[in-house]
Write a structure and sequence with these properties.
The complex is a heterodimer of chains A (about 110) and B (about 120). Chain A is globular. In chain A, about 0% of the residues lie in helices and about 50% in strands. Chain A is mainly β. The N and C termini of chain A lie far apart (about 40 Å). In chain B, about 0% of the residues lie in helices and about 55% in strands. The chains are: A mainly beta (about 110), B mainly beta (about 120).
Chain lengths: ~110, ~120
């Protein structure tokens, strides 16, 4: 399984755009990149997934360069409620299930 | 219904007790998972069930015993636990598939305290 490296923590203010970069140098050809968000004492929640280039949904964008050795989660105009831990995961589904391996994650603190 | 429901939400048990954690989903997912999460640490995979069969056991001690009675239910039976087993236990489910890493839906977890 590809190992991921993220900043341990980031600080931002309400209304700013936040970019969290994840490094995954040994990503395999068939691996997808997935980001999860976790609030204290809750289960992780899927945010976005991509394979290459750019993916956008209603909450975030995911930028993946051509070599796929890194990815950047972009959160537009964050609010206080975006304070959470964000996990970058790399992997694929084999034999009908995904073995999600969580790295240390990035603790994002949004201040007023 | 895109929910994974875990019960109980909180559990305090003694080291000689036997208890069970329950997890239920009605999304038709055929892959179900147990994770353990200690404070300020990422979730760690414990068990994976695929089509009600145990597919992965991440070298979990035998005092944790998983069970998948049907495609919607997943249990984790606990016996003779140690205080260091205190953690948030998370259940998740995902659609079966190949290739693309599928979205996993997590429950709110059971906060377990062993005294």
């Amino acid at each position: 399984l590809a190992k991921t490296t993220q900043p341990i923590s980031m600080d931002s203010y309400e209304g700013q755009e936040v970019n969290i970069t994840c490094s995954h140098n040994n990503i395999a050809t068939n691996d997808y990149i997935t980001w999860y968000q976790q609030f204290p004492s809750q289960g992780p929640r899927f945010i976005i997934q991509g394979y290459k280039t750019k993916v956008t949904n209603e909450v975030a964008s995911l930028f993946i360069p051509a070599d796929r050795k890194s990815s950047t989660l972009s959160l537009p105009r964050v609010s206080l409620s975006d304070t959470a831990v964000y996990y970058c995961l790399v992997g694929q589904t084999n034999s009908g299930y995904s073995t999600l391996t969580f790295g240390k994650g990035t603790m994002l603190l949004v201040s007023p | 219904d895109t929910e994974v429901t875990q019960t109980p939400k909180h559990l305090v048990m003694g080291m000689t007790n036997k208890k069970s954690l329950k997890c239920e989903q009605h999304m038709g997912h055929r892959a179900m998972y147990w994770y353990k999460q200690k404070a300020k640490k990422p979730p760690e995979l414990m068990f994976v069930y695929s089509y009600e069969k145990l597919s992965i056991n991440e070298s979990v001690p035998s005092r944790f015993s998983p069970e998948c009675p049907n495609s919607s239910l997943l249990n984790l039976h606990l016996h003779a636990l140690q205080p260091e087993d205190s953690a948030l236990y998370l259940c998740a489910s995902s659609q079966e598939g190949q290739g693309r890493s599928t979205e996993a839906f997590f429950g709110q977890g059971t906060r377990l305290t062993v005294v």
